[in-house]
């Protein structure tokens, strides 16, 4: 072979080798591109999963969440925010923060966080929306955007108000008998002790007042146990007549002392009902006690029980003065007394205890009454 042929063959061999290298490199690059593509795909999937998760958490949150950009525009608002600020349908996204919050104190908190670049927080009353909220504005570390969180504290505040109202009611109720006790003790100390007849009267009065305080604290303890759920019901199948008879037996001396007629009607064929015997007797005693207390001598008190559509219904009827329509919806509230002079010895807690006992049995209590027509109290419990 001459040298020209040799050169040609060498060139061809080199070209073949080079093409092979090129193909290999191309294949490698292709594999790298595919791998990178797969990695990006996986990252994108993770990101969109995280995004969906975050969106689900935000939309289920009961706190309102708003995200604002550096121009002061809402870029995101969760469902709670749209509902709280009155835009459940169209949504707040796209509006200015001021137009979304629509309350100068709320807007000020967001503005302060923008100016200072630091988190700001405040509690704000929104009387028109009947809400009490806590707003927190957290500025974005980079730009001037912000995360605005609004928590609805209305329920917590209501509970707080109920509690402080309760403490003030209780102190007020205690003050009256305690003031009497103090006055009676002072009168005795100042010389009434020497007058035996007067001293006896004062002492009897003192005992009555101490009894009232004692009853009130006992009622209060009972109510606290019922409300906290610490009072466990010991339910067992019971004849509906049993608590009725137990309550009557315990209060019979007071019926006689009050010069009242008492009727107890209990049919024999009633089914057993699953109740806590002590609590139910207590509830019926409270109703009977009121009937006795409010009915003048010569009046009549009737206790009965019947089966009404799968429910056992106890009834306490009296021929007393009745209750005004304005008072009727309130008598089951704590410390509610219609006529403070007449029910002076009561704590105003008796009926709220009855209501708790009825509700803890899945039942209810209510009253029908009109002035001069007597009253009927119903206590109903499902079988
Ligand atoms: P109290 O200890 O003052 O009796 P209750 O909670 O038992 O408290 O009753 C609340 C109020 O409801 C009473 O102060 C009274 O004004 C009214 N009331 C309850 N039962 C009767 C009744 N049988 N007749 C007339 N008023 C009643």
SSE topology sketch:
Blueprint: H1 3-60, E1 64-68, E2 74-77, H2 79-84, H3 97-101, H4 104-116, E3 120-126, E4 131-139, E5 146-152, H5 154-189, H6 196-228, E6 235-238, H7 241-257, E7 261-265, E8 273-276, H8 277-294, E9 300-308, E10 311-318, H9 350-360, E11 364-369, E12 375-382
Parallel strand pairs: 7-9
Antiparallel strand pairs: 1-2, 1-5, 3-4, 4-5, 6-8, 9-10, 10-12, 11-12
Bound molecules: adenosine-5'-diphosphate.
Q: Approximately what portion of the residues adopt beta-strand conformation?
A: 15-25%
Oligomeric description of these chains: single chain
Structural class: alpha+beta
Question: What is the average of the pLDDT values?
Answer: 89
Largest sheet: 5 strands, antiparallel
Number of domains: 4
Q: Count the helices. How many? A: 9
- CATH top level label of the largest domain: Alpha Beta
The rounded distance between the terminal residues' Cα atoms is: 117 Å
Instruction: Write the CATH architecture name of the largest domain.
Output: 2-Layer Sandwich
Helix and strand sequence: HEEHHHEEEHHEHEEHEEHEE
Shape category = elongated
CATH topology of the largest domain: Heat Shock Protein 90
Bound molecules: adenosine-5'-diphosphate
| Number of E-state strands | 12
Helix content: 40-55%
Tell me the strand order in the biggest sheet: 2-1-5-4-3
Would you identify the regions where 5 or more consecutive residues have pLDDT less than 50?
none
């Amino acid at each position: 072979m001459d040298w020209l042929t040799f050169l040609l063959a060498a060139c061809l061999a080199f070209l073949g080798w080079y093409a092979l290298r090129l193909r290999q490199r191309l294949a490698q690059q292709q594999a790298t591109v595919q791998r990178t593509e797969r990695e990006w795909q996986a990252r994108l999937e993770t990101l969109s999963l995280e995004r969906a998760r975050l969106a689900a958490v935000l939309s289920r949150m009961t706190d309102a969440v708003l995200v604002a950009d550096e121009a002061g525009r809402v870029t995101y608002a969760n469902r709670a925010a749209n509902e709280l600020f009155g835009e459940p349908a169209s949504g707040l996204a796209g509006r200015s923060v001021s137009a979304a919050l629509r309350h100068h104190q709320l807007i000020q908190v967001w503005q302060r966080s923008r100016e200072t670049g630091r988190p700001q927080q405040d509690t704000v009353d929104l009387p028109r929306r009947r809400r009490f909220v806590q707003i927190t504005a957290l500025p974005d570390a980079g730009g001037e955007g912000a995360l605005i969180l609004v928590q609805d504290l209305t329920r917590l505040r209501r509970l707080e108000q109920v509690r402080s109202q309760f403490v003030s009611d209780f102190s007020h109720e205690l003050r009256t008998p305690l003031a009497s006790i103090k006055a009676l003790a002072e009168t005795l100390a100042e010389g009434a002790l020497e007058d035996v007849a007067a001293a006896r009267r004062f002492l009897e009065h003192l005992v009555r007042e101490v009894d009232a305080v004692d009853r009130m604290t006992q009622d209060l303890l009972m109510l606290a146990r019922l409300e906290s759920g610490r009072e466990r019901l010991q339910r067992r199948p019971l004849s509906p007549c049993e608590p009725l008879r137990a309550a009557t037996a315990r209060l019979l001396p007071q019926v006689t002392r009050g010069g009242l007629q008492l009727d107890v009607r209990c049919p024999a064929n009633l089914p057993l009902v699953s109740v806590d015997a002590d609590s139910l007797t207590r509830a019926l005693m409270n109703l009977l006690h009121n009937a006795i207390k409010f009915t003048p001598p010569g009046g009549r008190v009737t206790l009965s029980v019947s089966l009404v559509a799968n429910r056992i219904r106890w009834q306490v009827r009296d021929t007393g003065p009745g209750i005004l329509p304005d008072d009727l919806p309130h008598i089951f509230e704590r410390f509610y007394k219609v006529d403070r002079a007449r029910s002076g010895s009561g704590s105003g807690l008796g009926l709220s205890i009855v209501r708790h006992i009825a509700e803890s049995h899945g039942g209810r209590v209510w009253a029908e009454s009109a002035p001069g027509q007597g009253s009927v109290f119903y206590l109903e419990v499902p079988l």
